[in-house]
């Protein structure tokens, strides 16, 4: 390796750095949304005038959520099978075959943290009892809230019917 090769490599690095700096500067100039550079005449959004409310505002839910137990009675395992695809990337249905998550063979009704060979997080180990349909529903709705510190990265399944259908499908596997 001679001096010219080192000089070319150094120049390439400096050139790439210059391109990134100029690109960042140009992007900031085009897309900057701060008010400091535009003065007070330039608005960032639209102001909507709202007359002062004289009384209390009543918030009404559009549709109250049906309790899980009522939905689970009519759950469809066939519809739950299509929802299983979301879980299949981390869990397996074969008995004893752990993936990123524990195997779910016979999970409905099984005692918690009983998947042989799986290393549970402290958050999940802190929970007790069995994986009843109600417990599974609460966990699937918001895993981080149900078991703070859980390793499960899933953000949750908000729809109560989807949770009921998925649990109905899992209930048909093993057990």
Plain-language structure description:
It holds the Pfam family Cytochrom_C. This is Cytochrome c. GO terms for molecular function: electron transfer activity; heme binding; metal ion binding. InterPro entries: Cyt_c-like_dom (IPR009056), Cyt_c-like_dom_sf (IPR036909), Cyt_c_1A/1B (IPR002327). This protein has about 180 residues and is mainly α. It has helices at about 5-30, 70-75, 75-85, 120-125, 135-140, 145, 160-170. Helix 3 (about 75-85) packs across helix 7 (about 160-170). The chain is flat, with a radius of gyration of 27 Å. The model has no long low-confidence stretch (mean pLDDT about 85).
Query: What name goes with the CATH superfamily of the domain at 68-171?
Result: Cytochrome c-like domain
Q: In whole angstroms, how far apart are the ends?
A: 68 Å
**Percent in helix:** 40-55%
Radius of gyration: 27 Å
What is the CATH level 1 assignment of the domain at 68-171? Mainly Alpha
- In CATH terms, what is the architecture of the domain at 68-171? Orthogonal Bundle
Give average pLDDT, whole number.
86
Broad structural category: mainly alpha
- What name does the CATH topology of the domain at 68-171 carry? Cytochrome Bc1 Complex, Chain D, domain 2
Largest sheet, strands/sense/barrel: none
Number of distinct beta strands: 0
Strand content: under 5%
Pfam families: Cytochrom_C (PF00034)
Protein name: Cytochrome c
Keywords: Electron transport, Heme, Iron, Metal-binding, Transport
Organism: Jannaschia pohangensis
